[in-house]
């Protein structure tokens, strides 16, 4: 590839930022006593700026001698303590940026006759959520600020965020798709346990913000070496009745980008998108009740891939895979917060999700010059996915601010009820393969987390226990001339048991920040299959492994910071990766799982530098990951057949090295922008594996390397009278994929938002892929075959929406 083009041609592309403008929130608390440790009530507490002694906040101690100051910004302060009969006391207080709640060491006041002066330095750390790397490299983005993707799915909202790319419906962080996706800090069946699923069907209207965590600490599950994306759902806590209702409507596939091959059904055009949403909240006294409901109905040209396949014997096949998709996703979440007393809170919530997907597709096969149709393959896929989740969490607050004990229980039930019908039209006969798959997943999670603030940081520790089971039943009725073996159906049972314990220590003073953590996980996986299966047998594995993490940062001064990160993580195969039932990916590509698949362990190191100024900052990081047992999908053919079998294997060692930079700049009160660039190198070492399905065959691959990257820029405009605008451009450079490469891609999005009805109402208009340039172009080289493909799937969508706050 032309590296000069990669580095410089995107320079003219300007890509913008959706970093949220969030407020600082730190609570400073403590206790005042006399020399005999007796509490002193009604002591005057005053906080002043160190630079100019300007008053910031004040309060008095209660009957227990305790005080609390809230809403304090990171800075240097003087804390004054005074009461009649005692000497007044002053002490410096440094408010840092790692903890939202920390306790000032006990303050002892001396009676006036024992006139003694004490000056003690106190460190209090706060959370500046709006700044990259100040929360251990957690970056937070508001979905409401992403004007160009409002009204779409969560997946569509993510693709404009810095550091994220979307490829084949999967999210990548820094070119790596081993991403763990959480909802409200938990793994759920909506987004996958250990992987990512369903993001394109969750409406963004249900989401408040999205957190990107590139270097997770030990308190998070060890799964997902690329990092964690945490989706925070909406929840209001204002007093009384309040809420928000909205309606978004849109159209996609505005015109045909490439005409169908002959003799097949029309592809979708002018596809509708409808998304009503409602959020209601009621809070009074000790009770807060909340409800969020969303429905996303879409018709989509989900795939429109034109393929030229060439075999080693000289055969050339031209085909098109077109998939018209209807999706209806309904989700609702309701719950109650009960503030039992100032120290104890109980939250109970439930979530229900129903996802209905109907795919109707065509795949004609022609000879090389498309003069003769060899066969036609048509399919109907009818899927209903139901998710029910119940959560109970309890929090006990100790007297010191930020000193808390949390306990939680989460139950998830997820049912996959899928039916597939594939019609194979040959010159002399027609056959229909029929499948029915039923899978009921149940997950029990229990966790206890404890946080203890310290003078210079905090300690976090906890335990977690997970039990998960997925019994699956596949009924297969083969049609005439079916290419699948008659044993393609049957039963399988997946069982997972994972207890874990972790500890994390965080330290900060005026110059140094440090975090040291360790998570210890025991994992036991058992996968039981039919005893008479011709290829696969029951299998499983277990391990006990440590997962350390380390972070050290040095503050050169108030505007410059250096940091280094290290962590070890794992990617365990998900149940669908080892599922033994073969499934059509298209008429001549068969996907099947591999029960012998094993976890992939990854070590990551990262060096970061941040420089900030009054109206912006630059954050850059150099990262390197190296993995053992790399999980990748292998595509191969067996002698005597032109079918391609795609299954996962452990391919040995792989490497991911890159440089990422973010530049955020406010030009004026009207205009600001953000540029995010990522340049990386991926490498998979040469490997050789034995594929068992459909019959034993050896696959070998040479070392693959590629230098790739992406650059994004968002322009944000805040005009007068409540009018906002956003303009986004994304360039994705050519990249490596399993056994091949994907070519460069480019798109432009825009959005407008106007506040009306005295700020209670809001109108927005947006358009994704304005120029209709986002085409997925791939080349793949397998053993005995090669193919090139261009996928003209739906990328251009125009949406109009309205919402009202009440």
Could you characterize what this model shows?
This protein is mostly beta strands. The protein folds into two domains: 27-125, Immunoglobulins (Immunoglobulin-like, Sandwich); 240-805, Beta Barrel (Maltoporin, Chain A). It is 2% helix and 62% strand. The chain has three helices and 48 strands. The strands form seven sheets. The chain has a 22-stranded antiparallel β-barrel.
List keywords for this structure.
single chain; 806 residues; mainly beta; Immunoglobulin-like; Maltoporin, Chain A; 5-stranded mixed β-sheet; disordered N terminus
User: Which strand-content bin applies to the residues?
Assistant: over 45%
Q: What helical percentage do the residues reach?
A: under 10%
Secondary-structure content class: mainly beta
Rounded radius of gyration (Å): 29 Å
- Uncertain runs: 1-23, 114-136
Separate helix tally: 3
Question: Largest beta sheet, briefly?
Answer: 22 strands, antiparallel, barrel
Q: For the terminal residues, how far apart are their CA atoms? A: 55 Å
Summarize the structure.
By secondary structure, this protein is an all-beta fold. The protein has 3 helices and 48 strands. The chain has a 22-stranded antiparallel β-barrel. It has a 5-stranded mixed β-sheet with strand order 4-3-6-7-10, with no helix packed on it.
